[in-house]
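Dear colleague,

As promised, here are the two records you asked about, laid out in our usual form so they can be pasted straight into your sheet.

NAME FIELD: protein one
SEQUENCE, THEN STRUCTURE:
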Amino acid sequence: MATPIQVTNDVEKNQVQNVPIDDNLDYTQRGQWLRAAMLGANDGLVSVASLMMGIGAVKDDIKAMLLVGFAGLVAGACSMAIGEFVSVYTQVDIERAQRKREKEKGDCGEKMEELEEQNLPNPLKAAIASAFAFSVGALVPLLAAAFIKPHKIRLVVVIAVASLTLVVFGAIGAAMGRSPIAKSCLRVLVGGWMAMSITYGLTKLTGSDEITEM
């Protein structure tokens, strides 16, 4: 026969096991890497789609559009990687300097310092992740336009695919961070439309005969 103590322990154990894991998560801990991933993917998508829309405003050639898009992918991925590496390395240097000052004051033990050192962000991993996220986003408009020769249809497809992907990115980011999905989707969608529209409009406005005859 189970004792009252055993019954109580079994009940508590079952209660713990029945608690959804997500309810115990601190979603703010996801903020840093989620921000970097979503920023990279959205930046890659919007930047390359806008570049392609810009060149499409003054030139019908599909090769020119794809070349500009690919150049934007490579340049953007490198820029994101270098920027993230420098940014995270700066953060690491600041945290190490602070912990060194705390150690000199006797506020930080050796074991605690070793543990905190292991928890520092990795600049190289952050750079690789940022470049990868940018490249994934940038590939979407490139692949959408790669096999469509009619110029106007190509532009419409780029806009449509980019818009759909922006909504998906917004929904994923909101779901993983447990924030309002509709608001997140609308925010990234309107931002993407603005970027593509401004790039297309200004390029069309300033386009010259020399650009058209490239």
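NAME FIELD: protein two
SEQUENCE, THEN STRUCTURE:
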Amino acid sequence: MKELSKYNIDIYGLEDKQYDYDMESGDAFFEELDQDLIERGHFKTHVVLNKSATMIQLQFHTEGAVTLICDRSLEPFEEPINLDDRIILKFGDHDEELTEEIEMINRNTNKINVARYLFDFIALSLPTKKIHPDLRSDEDELDLEDDEEEVILVYSSAETEEEESGEEEKIDPRWEALKKLKGE
């Protein structure tokens, strides 16, 4: 916990204005957290804290690299990280996560620890396929860069305009016979 205590920000008694914090960490940060995703890494983070009477806005800019294990070769490699993220902490009566970006914290909170936010931002920025740069092909590069997957439409219940106009012009003769019986 000694490593993670470097990420405490005392908010009690802060005036309503902007504050800047610079944080730097390495392997000890990832070892301290109970996780298996990242073994080693080093990064620098610049945190801009905007405090107002009702909320705290935290903006993070993180640069560095983390060591990952390749899914194909099981060899370690460094993946660069360059992130810009934001968290809003609203003052309330209890602690609650409202959305991905907004959390409610108790008014009496003296300090906040941003280590969890930093790890979450780094973990979410990692590619789903962890492939060593030497083994990446053009197709793998596209997969890593694009968040959108190719979608193939298998079934659609919506009718196209051609189908609708074709049905009005050409009616099944069996239906015509039934309409005659009905008297239309």
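A couple of things worth noting about protein two: Residues 115-125 form the longest helix (11 residues). The mean pLDDT is 81.

Best,
R.
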